[in-house]
């Protein structure tokens, strides 16, 4: 849709592109681009059991030689009921899917920026507002104790 310059110029003029007086917590929900950037993840937040199912290995360290496809994990041929090759293939599919989404988002933003000076300014306003809203996240520290 953004490959058409007329539509690319129209998107930043829509009221939902960057609604005024939006609280920081809701900008990813109410802004036009928010849902695309706000929840970009390889695993859904709504189903934490998914990551436990596919990527939990207890306290076992897996030392597999990537150059040797015949290498096995220390717990034998199976990892949580799955072969190491299957787990590795699943991880590559997830990485590939996220990479594809990121590339698509880059193309959308790139086309919007190149659509014209007014559109570029609106994109910069959007990015600066989102960055300003996220200043506090840089101060957060995770405690592992």
If you had to describe this structure to a student in words, what would you say it looks like?
The structure is a single chain. This protein has 145 residues and is mainly alpha-helical. It has one domain (5-38, 65-135). The protein has 6 helices and 2 strands, in the order ααααββαα. A two-stranded antiparallel ribbon has the order 1-2. The longest helix has 31 residues, at 84-114. The termini are far apart. 10% of the residues are buried.
Distance between the termini: 48 Å
Mean pLDDT: 76
Q: What is the total domain count?
A: 1
Which structural class should the secondary elements be placed in? Answer: mainly alpha
Strand order of the largest sheet: 1-2
Which percent range describes the beta-strand content?
Answer: under 5%
Low-confidence stretches: 58-63, 72-78
Largest sheet: 2 strands, antiparallel
Query: How many helices?
Result: 6
Using the CA coordinates, give the radius of gyration: 21 Å
> What does the overall shape look like?
globular
Q: Could you tell me the number of beta strands?
A: 2
Please write the string of helix (H) and strand (E) elements. HHHHEEHH
The helix fraction, in percent, is 40-55%
Task: Break the fold down into its secondary structure elements and pairings.
Blueprint: H1 5-10, H2 27-30, H3 34-38, H4 48-55, E1 78-79, E2 82-83, H5 84-114, H6 117-133
Antiparallel strand pairs: 1-2
Helix pairs in contact: 5-6
